[in-house]
Design a protein that fits this description.
Keywords: Amino-acid biosynthesis, Aromatic amino acid biosynthesis, Cobalt, Cytoplasm, Kinase, Lyase, Metal-binding, NAD, Nucleotide-binding, Transferase, Zinc. With about 375 residues, the chain is an alpha/beta fold. Helices cover about 45% and strands about 20% of the residues. The relative contact order is 0.11.
């Protein structure tokens, strides 16, 4: 079993292994009540894990929510609050979020907001949730106006990344999750890029040791970043970007997600955002043509898109202006001088932004 420690103010561990869910009862400890928030698509797994963690005779409340981003709405949040109220949930009780990143984001925000904060554990069931949403303490819900506009920082008691839960994951979901892993390779951990190049097929095989290593490296990258800047308050100096480093590809990616009404997978949108950021970095930071080509090559072998022209630029620009990383009317992007050498691009010209989006349409 691989254990990645997240040494924040309230340290916790991410357990990564096949069968890691057996650690759940020990992590949960003794509780009066336990609520399991899970996608209705995962009802069978939620019941199994509820029984596992409830072996100490704690009553388990199962709360089913819609799949994907449809769970991250104010209406579903209110449904969860009311279910906890009806069950008499107290501050000494525990919430467990089981599912993809949207479900764990929702469960974390339910825990952060209920009685001003109760304990929670995440059991991510997708590659994306394991390497991104379940680690780092960010929780939240979406509004029609944009993604993750309402949320809170609330760290889990721990994360159980059971690789067995990936066995039935569709190929498209595996690829989507790997977008966040290859992002770590572009901005810091070059070994990730080597692992993907050496075996693209093994990188997408949910039973392979290679994918397990990629997941471990993705989790370690995020743990290292958030440990130094949990609340994204570090002022970037040179290549030391703090938590903002995690936003590579996300500014345009989130806008595309919103324009597509979240029908495009998060990783697919972020892949497009990374290609856009690579074009922007070539124009403004001198990123080489070879590095831009590396982006295209590795994203494509992972089954991710590299070209996009569906949305009008003016509409995407408006959506980016609502992004929580914007400063007033100015946009900020994480860019690259070289692979592994990030730098903030602040307030690029509107002309350059539009031209780089046009380049994305030619990929």
């Amino acid at each position: 079993m691989s254990t990645v420690r997240v040494p924040t103010d309230h340290p916790y561990s991410v357990e990564i292994d096949y069968g890691a869910r057996e650690k759940l009862p020990e992590l949960a400890g003794s509780r009066s009540r336990i609520a399991v928030i899970a996608s209705t698509r995962l009802e069978e797994a939620a019941v199994e894990l509820g029984r596992l963690v409830g072996r100490g005779n704690a009553p388990v409340l199962n709360i089913g929510v819609p799949d994907g981003e449809l769970a991250k709405t104010p209406a579903i949040l209110t449904d969860c609050w009311r279910a906890l109220a009806d069950a008499g949930f107290t501050r000494s009780d525990l919430i467990i979020g089981i599912g993809g990143g949207a479900t764990t984001d929702l469960a974390g925000f339910v825990a952060a907001s209920w009685l001003r904060g109760v304990d929670f554990i995440t059991v991510p069931t997708t590659v994306l949730a394991m390497v991104d949403a379940a680690v780092g303490g960010k929780t939240g819900i979406d509004l029609p106006e944009g993604k993750n506009l309402v949320g809170a920082f609330h760290e889990p008691q721990g994360v159980i990344a059971d690789l067995d839960l990936l066995r039935t994951l569709p190929d498209r979901e595996v690829s989507s999750g790997l977008a966040e892993v290859v992002k770590a390779g572009f901005v810091r951990d070059g070994r990730i890029l080597d692992l993907i190049r050496e075996s693209p097929e093994g990188s997408r095989d949910v039973t392979s040791a290679r994918l397990a290593e990629l997941i471990r490296r993705g989790v370690q990258f995020k743990a290292d970043v958030v440990a130094g800047d949990l609340r994204e308050t570090t002022t970037p100096v040179g290549g030391r970007l703090g938590r903002e480093l995690l936003n590579y590809g996300h500014t345009l990616g989130h806008a595309i997600e919103a324009w597509e009404h979240f029908e495009l997978r998060h990783g697919e949108a972020v892949a497009l955002g990374m290609m856009f950021a690579a074009h922007l970095s070539r124009r403004l930071l001198g990123l080489s043509d070879d590095a831009v080509a590396t982006h295209r090559e590795l994203l494509e072998v992972l089954g991710l898109p590299t070209g996009y022209r569906a949305a009008p630029w003016e509409e995407l620009r408006t959506l980016m202006g609502r992004d929580k990383k914007a400063r007033g009317s100015s946009l900020r992007f994480v860019g690259l001088r070289n692979l592994g050498d990030p730098e903030i691009i602040a307030a690029p010209s509107e002309r350059v932004l539009a031209e780089c989006y046009a380049e994305l349409g030619r990929d």
